[in-house]
């Protein structure tokens, strides 16, 4: 049955639409932190639909909210007043930390970043964007144009002039051998030098932790130091919180808060986890930036009633059950457990991350050379053991990505770590 579906998939969908596993699986249903495939196999889910099932599969509070809203009205567009959209916007504006914040809802993180770029370039009257090496910001024409990851950038054509800055990867590149303070100073010096060679940019866009890039990050405070330089020149800071938002890092509700010494970003984008599987993305910005557009604009599907109902229920559950604290506690245990296991596997170069956002970098033993085939083999072995994880990496890197729902408990963390340890040992 699955083989037949795979044939049909290949006959009508693009060749570049990636599928995991040599024998791809069809996930038919889920509950809590587990999912089942069409063959009846049960898996512990440590990837959550690419960090999107944030609280739990089939969370009763969310499914009830969706069902009740669907029984009233599903959609009307932004041309009409929409109570759930206003209520969720009010809560996100307050949580964002951005003063006099306005919120615009989209259907995805890609569209959110696309909107942020529209706002920044319009506000600043510049189409030059600063972005980080090894970054990923989506699959639209503009977001591909600022993505600093060759594996996810199918064209060099772009409406933007993009300049790439050092700093998104702590343990590779020309400054890797420096201590944290010197690393930040060197990246700031590089930024200042770069700004001396170009026309004034509109904004810097950065993921606090690079998602597709393999959960890499700079030392805390780097983007605060960048912001000081940018603010002096009127250049905006866009924080891409599509993967780092909503408490996933444990220590902070937003990833930018690890770099908040000089205040919040001018623009922040979000998506993925807030909808717990429903299609929600969005942009938060200071009012003068959000209101800089001088022509009409709407969103047909952004902020539709059924997705807003899901987002409100999901955010309420997240806050009332302190899932950020759970990510910090259980994520800390999981990271230490994985580091202990990886210490016995020479092919594991690094276990990194924070909270429930963990990367395991795989290299050829005794070298810094990426080993994508080995990473893919571990992915397969983990699935055979009943665990779903992700993979990523940028220039000369190969990493496994671990990002369970934020309600993960200690027993499940131990179970997943044991399966992953066995997969690492059996393959590497």
Offer a few descriptive terms:
single chain, 428 residues, alpha/beta, four-stranded mixed sheet, 13 helices
Can you walk through the features of this model?
The protein has 428 residues and is of the alpha/beta class. Helices cover 37% and strands 16% of the residues. It is built from 13 helices and 15 strands. It has helices at residues 2-12, 48-51, 60-70, 83-96, 109-124, 141-145, 180-195, 222-232, 287-290, 305-320, 323-342, 372-384, 410-427, and strands at 27-31, 34-37, 42-45, 101-106, 128-132, 161-165, 203-206, 236-240, 267-270, 281-286, 348-354, 357-362, 387-388, 390-392, 399-402. A seven-stranded mixed sheet has the order 4-10-9-8-7-5-6, with helices on both faces. A four-stranded mixed sheet has the order 1-2-3-13. Strands 11-12-15-14 form a four-stranded antiparallel sheet, with helices on one face. Strand 7, helix 8 and strand 8 form a beta-alpha-beta unit. Helix 3 (60-70) packs antiparallel against helix 10 (305-320) and helix 11 runs parallel beside helix 13 (410-427). The chain is globular and about 55 Å long.
């Amino acid at each position: 049955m699955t083989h037949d579906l795979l044939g049909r998939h290949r006959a009508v969908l693009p060749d570049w639409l990636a599928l995991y596993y040599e024998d791809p699986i069809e996930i038919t249903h889920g509950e809590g932190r587990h999912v089942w495939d069409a063959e009846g196999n049960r898996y512990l889910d440590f990837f959550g639909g690419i960090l999107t099932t944030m609280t739990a599969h089939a969370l009763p509070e969310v499914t009830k909210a969706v069902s009740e809203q669907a029984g009233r009205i599903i959609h009307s567009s932004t041309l009409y007043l929409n109570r759930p959209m206003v209520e969720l916007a009010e809560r996100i504006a307050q949580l964002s930390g951005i003063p006099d914040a306005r919120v615009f809802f989209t259907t995805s993180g890609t569209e959110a970043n696309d909107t942020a770029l529209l706002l920044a370039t319009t506000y600043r009257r510049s189409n030059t964007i600063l972005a980080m090496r090894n970054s990923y910001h989506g699959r639209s024409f503009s977001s591909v144009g600022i993505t600093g990851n060759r594996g996810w950038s199918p064209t060099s054509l772009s409406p933007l002039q993009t300049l790439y800055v050092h700093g998104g990867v702590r343990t590779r590149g020309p400054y890797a051998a420096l201590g944290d303070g010197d690393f930040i100073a060197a990246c700031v010096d590089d930024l200042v030098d770069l700004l001396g060679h170009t026309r004034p940019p509109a904004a810097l866009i950065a993921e606090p932790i690079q998602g597709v890039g393999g959960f890499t990050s700079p030392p805390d405070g780097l983007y605060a130091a960048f912001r000081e330089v940018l603010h002096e020149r009127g250049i905006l800071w866009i924080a891409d919180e599509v993967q780092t938002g909503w408490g996933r890092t444990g220590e902070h509700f937003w990833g930018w808060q690890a770099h908040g010494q000089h205040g919040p970003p001018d623009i922040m984008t979000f998506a993925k986890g807030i909808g717990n599987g429903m299609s929600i993305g969005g942009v938060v910005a200071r009012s003068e930036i959000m209101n800089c557009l001088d022509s009409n604009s709407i969103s047909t599907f952004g902020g539709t009633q059924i997705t807003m109902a899901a987002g409100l229920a999901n955010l309420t559950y997240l806050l009332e059950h302190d899932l950020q604290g759970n990510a910090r506690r259980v994520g800390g245990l999981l990271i230490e457990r994985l580091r202990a296991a990886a210490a016995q596997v020479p092919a594991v170069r690094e276990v990194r991350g924070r909270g429930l956002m963990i990367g395991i970098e795989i290299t050829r033993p005794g070298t810094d050379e990426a080993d994508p085939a080995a990473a893919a083999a571990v992915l397969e072995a983990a699935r055979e053991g009943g665990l779903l994880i992700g993979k990523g990496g940028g220039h000369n890197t190969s990493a496994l990505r671990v990002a369970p729902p934020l309600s993960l408990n200690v027993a499940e963390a131990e179970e997943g770590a044991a399966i992953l340890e066995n997969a690492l040992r059996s393959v590497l």
